[in-house]
Amino acid sequence: MITSLSRLAAFVLMSALLFGTLYVPMTLEAAAPPTLSLPIPAGETWKVIQGYNCGTHTGYDENAFDLVNVHGRTRGAPVLAAADGTYWWWGARGGTVILSHGNGFYTMYSHLESRVPFGKGARIERGTVLGTAGSAGTSYNNPHLHFEMFRGDGPSATNRRPVPLSFMEGYTFPDHGTCNQYAGTKLTAGSSGSAPHGLSTGSAKSLPPAPTAPTLLDPGSGVHQIVRWNASTARSGIKGYQIYVGSDSQGTGEWFVVEPQVALPGLSTGQYVVRVRAIDNAGNTSAWVTLLELTVP
């Protein structure tokens, strides 16, 4: 027994002399990827038009999804951070934002039409608006969001490897190696306190509440009547306003303006209403409100 202990002590001492430190065996656990939420506004459904592998999804892009909005606009739709992290890179040519999430994990958002100009290293929370979907770096007629997660080594994220996607809304997408895997799949983003597939959203950051509704500031007058309203407010900022001018007291429209005012078009004889709703940078909308009732003689 004493001889065995002596031999062990001698081995430990020799290791310290040779390597300059004591070797203590230990088990290292691989770092887990961040928990992702879908990078689209709550309640919206988007479809995968190009899935894993083949086509343009090769190399560390293998486990990427190209996504389009099923029931609404794709171009100009807000793109949200899928997890907490830091702003790591912006590439104007492809409209690409990359966030770092620690332990070598990154998420990529490409083909953005516009971006929020965060500085490198800025802290980004889950659900933060990064920009709007578009077609930068691809055909103008093919607006979509390219989304992926990858892992890289060191400060420059070298030796990049694809990471299969899963989302806290209850979607998990293992890589089976087939071409265009998961194309056609529809994904619906969860909202605060709920998830489409019955899973807890955990610590997901809920989207900002709806913007405040516009209120009339100046009805204007004359041939070139300009109607002005008090600017709405929202946590993510106001993107603009949709306008309806017509005879329907509950009418809605797609006419869009950025400033809180509109120059009315020439109107024929009749009764009209001017209705407005606000849209914020997260894609939330206020209720439609009637700001003005007009009689054109």
Q: What does this entry show, briefly?
A:
With 297 residues, the protein is mainly beta. 6% of the residues lie in helices and 36% in strands. The protein starts with a helix and ends with a strand.
Structure explained in plain terms:
The protein is mainly β and 297 residues long. The chain has one helix at residues 2-19, and strands at 45-50, 65-69, 78-80, 85-91, 96-100, 105-110, 112-115, 123-124, 129-133, 145-153, 158-163, 166-167, 171-172, 186-188, 215-218, 226-230, 238-246, 255-257, 261-263, 270-280, 289-296. The strands form 5 sheets. Strands 1, 2, 4, 5, 6, 8, 10, 11 and 14 form a 9-stranded antiparallel β-sheet that branches. The chain is built from 1 helix and 21 strands. The chain is elongated, with a radius of gyration of 27 Å. 6% of the residues lie in helices and 36% in strands. The longest helix is centred in the N-terminal third of the chain and has 18 residues, at 2-19. The chain starts with a helix and ends with a strand. The chain has 2 domains: 45-188, Glucose Permease (Domain IIA); 215-296, Immunoglobulin-like (Sandwich), CATH 2.60.40.
SSE map:
Layout: H1 2-19, E1 45-50, E2 65-69, E3 78-80, E4 85-91, E5 96-100, E6 105-110, E7 112-115, E8 123-124, E9 129-133, E10 145-153, E11 158-163, E12 166-167, E13 171-172, E14 186-188, E15 215-218, E16 226-230, E17 238-246, E18 255-257, E19 261-263, E20 270-280, E21 289-296
Antiparallel strand pairs: 1-2, 1-14, 2-10, 3-9, 4-5, 4-8, 5-6, 6-10, 7-9, 10-11, 12-13, 15-16, 16-19, 17-18, 17-20, 20-21
